[in-house]
Design a protein that fits this description.
heterodimer; A: mainly beta; Lipocalin; 12-stranded antiparallel beta barrel; 15 strands; 69% strand; globular; B: 441 residues; alpha+beta; Immunoglobulin-like; Purple Acid Phosphatase, chain A, domain 2; 2 domains; 7-stranded mixed β-sheet; 8 helices; 19% helix
Chain lengths: 259, 441
């Protein structure tokens, strides 16, 4: 969250390579070619008062499917919607051991179209995310950790059921390198998600419950304090035991700077 | 003494004969007879009795010479396979167990070999609740004289349990089942009990040579190949036995016409299965499948020919036939839809060499959609060349939509629109598109 009167700009680019779809019974349907979902998100937030920030996020998605063996390919790209959020940090900028942040968000989804790969599932969403992370201690050498818990709600669309998703993620790590006032931290992360309907990567797969765990690694580079150089995060996450969900790898790069 | 021994022996013989006679007389039919297809050229006659007994079928072609086929052992579930029938001939048959004729004489059409190029078949689907709709459809199938019926799955509700088969499937369809086999595929409801154990027991279809149970199989009839896939209880991903079997089956087929059927439709104005679409549809296009039949959504729908996931001209036609009697679904027409109607009914396909005529019928037999595909001879490598969509012969006011053909698709006969699609919908309307669909069964 940016300091009062400041803005924070964050760009995030992720590539999700889906190897297969796993149904509720655990049957894995492996894709014959490559199925990739690229998502770029620009988030801008501004803090007009202490403990509070308001922001907007603009995603852009490109989905591609290629099966070279039989020369089948398809791709679609575009803006899947727009999101707005409010961040509230109850602890303010006091030096707490844990820094909690609560984010309330709303995403307005773009039209649903039944192409082979849609960039939007057509469902608007409300979300509440509670995040905790620990600041550097012991001179920046100690362990640190954090976590998020997110609830997502999509209003029912007449004959369809409402959409509910919960997601929890925890991570822990420690600095592995300090260079010229900057630091690189390595984290291990673990999470679990569950939803009432299988909606993933802008696609609607099935109207039955969907769930799965995930685990991965994250590297974070924090530039020296009081510079305009953006911080950098790299993460790689693998799906574990998905049910009625895609299974694959996701790599994410994000840059964030406060102005 | 000899007289006494003789008397005792006589009494024992009488008692034994009486008991045996009572046992024979007690045998009664509890299901069937109905028909299956254990191979391209064979027919299976199937019936259930209340007690275990032997199995015998007497059959005769038009020459009037009666032959006998039996199966070894005794059982309450009888399956007698008949081989070597004259191609396409009308065969009369009678079934016996314990020496008792269990049903009136009936007849079926023998399988057609590859030299024949004319035949008809029907497609039914989602018969899950049976009832009067299914009974009327059975009557129409008998009247139409189709060789067999393809079933697009969800044979019985709610969980595919054996105890529901008689009431909701065998009894409503009984009149047809005497005369033609049902070549079925597993629906999502059919596999809810013991992964479809009852279904696998009840239907006799060819082995696939890959798995112990024929959850997926192929059968050749005349100049056409019929491929049944299981997308409900078997893996169909690129590394699955079913996928590799499908590739081999389609690649090695020399049939003029290729049809594939499975339960959940990859293209639908209800709920399409995008996973099936991504994994299997490119194969259908590559190997020149002509029509894919599915069910799951309780309506009738026909797409424009689709290639590379879009309706651009030559390609595969996708038919959803789910109007077998379960409550009808609502829908919102997609861009690839040529015709969609929330109506009960069945589909009939007539093959005449390189010409295919498909007609969609309501349970009274009235035609509400039709399609003609012409295929130049000899067999081209892939796809459908021409599409002729003809207008309804009747109209009873049910909701349905017929769209204009996409660029590149020839529509020789007038493609009359029942309800104009109108201008492009407002984004907010499209936002709620999914809401107008009911979840399929």
């Amino acid at each position: 969250m940016p300091p009062v009167g400041h803005a924070r700009v964050e760009t995030e680019y992720s590539l999700y390579a889906a190897d297969s779809f796993v149904d509720l019974e655990g049957h894995e349907q492996r894709f014959p070619g490559s199925l990739d979902f690229a998502l770029a998100v620009l988030r801008v937030s501004y803090s007009p008062m202490r403990n509070l920030a308001i922001g907007v996020e603009q995603p852009y998605r490109r989905s591609t499917f290629e099966e070279p063996g039989i020369e089948a390919s398809f791709s679609s790209k575009g803006i899947p919607g727009i999101g707005f959020f409010i961040d509230w940090a109850p602890g303010g900028d006091k030096p707490h051991r844990w820094r909690p942040v609560l984010r309330f968000g709303y995403v307005r989804a773009r039209n649903e179209t039944d192409q082979v790969l849609t960039i939007s599932d057509g469902a608007n969403r409300y979300s509440a995310t509670f995040g905790l992370d620990s600041p550097a201690t012991q001179g920046g050498q100690g362990w640190r950790g954090g976590g998020t818990f997110q609830l997502v709600y999509g209003p029912p669309l007449e004959a369809e059921r409402r959409y509910l998703e919960s997601r929890v993620q925890v991570e822990a790590g420690r600095p592995i390198l300090h260079v010229l006032g900057s630091e690189i931290c390595a984290f291990g992360l673990l999470g679990y998600r569950s939803s009432t309907i299988a909606r993933q990567e802008g696609m609607f797969f099935h109207d039955r419950t969907s769930q799965g765990a995930f685990a991965g690694l994250r590297l974070g580079w924090q530039p020296p304090a009081r510079t305009l150089i953006p911080s950098l995060r790299l993460s790689v996450v693998k799906d574990l035991r998905p049910r009625n969900a895609l299974s694959g790898w996701k790599a994410t790069v994000s840059l964030a700077a406060t102005f | 003494m000899p007289d006494t021994r003789s008397f005792v022996r006589t009494v024992l013989l009488c008692v034994t004969a009486l008991l045996a006679g009572q046992r024979v007389l007690a045998i009664s039919l509890v299901r069937g007879p109905y028909l299956g297809r254990p191979s391209d050229s064979a027919v299976a006659v199937i019936w259930n009795t209340d007690t275990a007994a032997d199995s015998r079928v007497d059959y005769a072609a038009s020459d009037g010479v009666w032959h006998t086929a039996t199966s070894p052992g005794v059982s309450a579930h009888h399956v007698v396979a008949i081989e070597g029938l004259p191609s396409g001939a009308e065969i009369n048959y009678r079934v016996f167990s314990g020496g008792v004729e269990l049903a009136p004489e009936s007849s079926f059409r023998a399988p057609r070999d590859a030299t024949q190029t004319r035949f008809r078949f029907a497609v039914i689907g989602d018969t899950a609740e049976g009832g009067s709709v299914l009974t009327r459809i059975a009557d129409r199938l008998v009247e139409s004289g189709v060789d067999f019926a393809v079933h697009t799955g969800d044979v019985v509700y709610p969980t595919g349990a054996q105890q529901n088969y008689d009431k909701t499937f065998f009894l409503p369809l009984a009149r047809w089942l005497l005369r033609g086999p049902v070549l079925s595929t597993l629906g999502n409801h059919d596999v809810m009990t013991s992964r479809g154990a009852a279904y696998l027991t009840n239907f006799v279809v060819p082995p696939n040579g890959v798995t112990r149970n024929s959850r997926f199989y192929a059968i050749r009839q005349a100049n056409a190949l019929f491929v049944c896939l299981d997308v409900e209880s078997s893996s169909y991903g690129a590394d699955s036995p079913q996928y590799h079997w499908l590739v081999r089956t389609l690649a090695t087929s020399t049939a003029t016409w290729k049809f594939v059927y499975f339960h959940e439709p990859p293209y639908s104005s209800g709920h399409p299965n995008h996973i099936v679409r991504l994994i299997l549809c490119p194969l259908f296009e590559h190997f020149g499948v002509d029509i894919v039949f599915s069910g799951h959504v309780h309506l009738y729908e026909r797409t424009w020919p689709i290639r590379d996931f879009v309706p651009t001209g030559p390609g595969v036609v996708y038919i959803t036939e789910g109007g077998g009697g379960s409550p009808l679904s609502t829908f919102h027409q997609e861009d690839y839809t040529a015709f969609v109607a929330a109506r009960f009914g069945y589909t009939e396909v007539q093959i005449d060499g390189g010409t295919l005529t498909l007609t969609a019928h309501d349970p009274n037999g009235s035609v509400f959609d039709s399609l003609v595909l012409d295929k130049p001879q000899p067999v081209p490598s892939a796809g459908v060349r021409y599409v002729r969509a003809t207008r309804d012969s009747t109209w009873d006011g049910d909701e349905h939509v017929r769209a204009s053909p996409p660029p590149g698709v020839t529509c020789r006969a007038p493609c009359r629109r029942r309800r104009e699609p109108g201008p492009a919908p407002h984004p907010q309307q499209l936002d709620r598109r999914a809401s107008r669909r009911t979840r399929p069964g």
